[in-house]
Amino acid sequence: MLTTAALILIVTCHIAVGQDMPEKGPYSLDMALQSVDDQYYNCTEDMRHKVQTCYLKKEITANKSGFANAWRDAENSLVPQDNLTINHLIAIRVYSSKKVYSEFNNAIRNGKQSYRQLVFGWYSLHFWLTEALQILKKSQQECRLTYRGTHVNFTQSDVLNKEIRFGSFASSSLDKNEAKNFGNLSCFEIYTCHGADVTKYSEHGREKEVLIPPYEKFIITAIRKGQKGDWCKTVYKLNSSGIQSNLSCAVANRSCPSLSRKYIRGGQITSPRAFLSDPRNSYFMRSKHGNEKGSGVQKLSVQQRKDSKIFHQYRPKGGIYDFIKK
C-alpha cells in the first residue's frame, strides 16, 4: 500500500540559492497577493488528514515530476529525526530537485485561486514543507541574517521602506559567498525570523540553506546600488515584519473535491471537451477508485466514491456523453 512517503521524490540534484525565481518576468517586489501562503494555523491536524486521505494519491497520479517512481528509495534512505517525520525530510529534499522546484514555486506564486477552488496541484508538498519549517523553528527560535543572490533585475524604484513577501518558498544562505555564486544582479540581505536552517537535512549542506516560507513579511530598510566592492550590483536589506497568511486554513476544513457537475444538464454532459478537461473531473478519469479493488477506495469520502463510480459509466451517444446516474 502506498504511504504518504510516495508523494516525494528523493533526488541528488539541488536548487541554487536564489535560483527559485520564475522562469519568465516581469519581476516585482510586492506583497505577492496571489501566492499560496497557507500557514495552517490551528488546522494542522485537519490538513494532515486531508493530505493523507484526499490529495496524496491524486497528486502522485497527476504530477509530471515523477514523485511516484521513487517513493521506495525515499522511504529506505531516510529515517525520522529531530521531530521530523519521513515525509517532512523528503519534502525538504524534493524542494531542491530541478524537476520540482521551478514548477512548484511558480504554482505557489500564482495559485491563490486554484488553491481556493480545490484544483491546486501541490497541496501535499506545500503542507509537508510548511510543517517541516514550523517544526524546525521550535528549536531554532532565534532570527538569522541570511543572503540570497539572484540573476534578475527588479524594476521598481520606490520600494524603500515598503513591505514585501517573496510569495514562495525562498532559498537563502548563511554564507554570503554561497549566495553570490548563484546571482549578483539583485541580492538580498535578509533578517528572517520564520525561515528555518535546513542544512542538516539537505544533500548539499555546503550551501548552508535557510528556507523562508511564503507567508513571512519583510520591510525593505535599505537599498545599495553600484557600490564599489559590494557583493552584488543591487542589494536590498530586508527585516522581518511578521506573518501574513491570507489563505490560512482555506482548505483544511472543506470536503475533498468531488465530481464537477458544471457541464451536466438533464443527465447529460453538454460539453464533453470542457467536462473532461475540468481538473476536478480529470482526477476521476485518471483513477478508477470506485471500480478497482485495492485502489484506495477506503481512503475516499463517500461522495468521492459515488462520483467515481458515476464518472466511469458515461458513454458516447451522438457526440454527447450520456451521463448515467446510479
TrEMBL record:
Keywords, ordered alphabetically: Disulfide bond, Glycosyltransferase, NAD, NADP, Nucleotidyltransferase, Signal, Transferase
Enzyme class per UniProt: transferase
GO molecular function: NAD+ poly-ADP-ribosyltransferase activity; NAD+-protein-arginine ADP-ribosyltransferase activity; nucleotidyltransferase activity
Similarity comment: family membership: Belongs to the Arg-specific ADP-ribosyltransferase family.
Residues of the signal peptide: 1-18
Enzyme Commission number(s) from the entry: 2.4.2.31
Glycosyltransferase among keywords: yes
Keyword Glycosyltransferase in record: yes
Protein name per UniProt: NAD(P)(+)--arginine ADP-ribosyltransferase
PROSITE patterns: TR_MART
Catalysed reactions listed for this entry: L-arginyl-[protein] + NAD(+) = N(omega)-(ADP-D-ribosyl)-L-arginyl-[protein] + nicotinamide + H(+)
PANTHER family to which the protein is assigned, alphabetical: ADP-RIBOSYLTRANSFERASE (PTHR10339), NAD(P)(+)--ARGININE ADP-RIBOSYLTRANSFERASE (PTHR10339:SF27)
